[in-house]
Amino acid sequence: MRKAINKIIFVMNSIAAFALLLSYLLPYVSPKMFPLLSVLSLAVPVLIVVNVLFLLYWIVLLSKRSMLSLIVLALGISHVSSLYKLRGKSMDTGETGISIMSYNVHSFNRFNWIDSKTIPQDISNLIKIQNPDIFCVQEFYNNPDIDFKQYPYKYDYFNHNSKELALVIFSKYPFMKKGSLNFEKTANNVIFADIVMPRDTVRVYNIHLQSHRISSKTNDLAKEDSQKLLKRIQVSFKQQQQQSEQLISHMRSSPYKNIVMGDFNNTAYSYVYDKIKSENLQDTFKKEGKGFGKTFKFELFPARIDFILVPKEFEVLSFKSFDLEFSDHYPIYSKVKIP
């Protein structure tokens, strides 16, 4: 009886291992060509955890079948490190550097998604305490209770498709050129500002790529029509690719080194993340992050869809994701040294 059960478990293990192996191809597969395969990127964290559990199961039984998941996980060690990091620097090291922060504030709880009346004040206090030199905000809403007066420089852009929500770059350092990429037929967008820092001028991109409009709650997901949901996600993946291509083209024309941060609405296993990161950028979480580094409140697994990417020449001193439920996203913070 036990042999029969283990055979069934190994078949399930083989399916999970193959799916994870297939996911390693995702950064190289265009969503425009294979949108259905791109959807798999959203499930990679689950596949990693499932394969780890299968690995532990076979190890306990002292079975050679443990080699299957072990080999697949080893082949995708970069995927595993994108999900969880054992060591990193989340505290200020005391070294001189530039602190940068990104936060999708979900319009400061405008429609009371969270049972709290003090969200704008809570976020304002958080920013005052962390005091980043550059602060990028997504889904900004003009709330009278917010207070970011510590920033003498501000660039906000209300997309023509969203008159109330904006992308904003706050800075302690002056701007030179600034502008917007103006994505068509969507409320999502990318803005940029050339910021004169003490050592150099850098271009900072605040990005908010196309949303999949997926509920973070398991019960709500279960109620959705699976075919309509799948079709919607495939369409948004294609839009994300088009938006990322527009962003990359703009980055390549930049006279300065680029910092890219914000809400990618996609994971570190995706085509768009890989293509943007390939522009001589490094993921600050992968350098100095610790734990899961979750950035989005998703019931199924710890989702990391917000990123701070800096030039490879920069030294990453620290990274932190704050476990604070003031939004459906969690704020992320990093300190870097410009050479």
UniProtKB/TrEMBL annotation:
Transmembrane helix in keyword set: yes
GO CC term (a single one): membrane
Endonuclease/exonuclease/phosphatase domain segment(s): 101-329
Keyword Membrane among UniProt keywords: yes
Domain of life: Bacteria
Residues in the signal sequence: none
Pfam family, one: Exo_endo_phos
InterPro entries named among the record's database cross-references: Endo/exonu/phosph_ase_sf, Endo/exonuclease/phosphatase, GPI-anchor_lipid_remodeler
GO biological process, any: GPI anchor biosynthetic process
Coiled-coil residue windows: none
Keywords in alphabetical order: Endonuclease, Hydrolase, Membrane, Nuclease, Transmembrane, Transmembrane helix
TM annotation in the entry: 7-27, 33-60, 67-84
UniProt xrefs under SUPFAM superfamilies: DNase I-like (SSF56219)
GO molecular function, one term: endonuclease activity
Name of the featured protein: Endonuclease
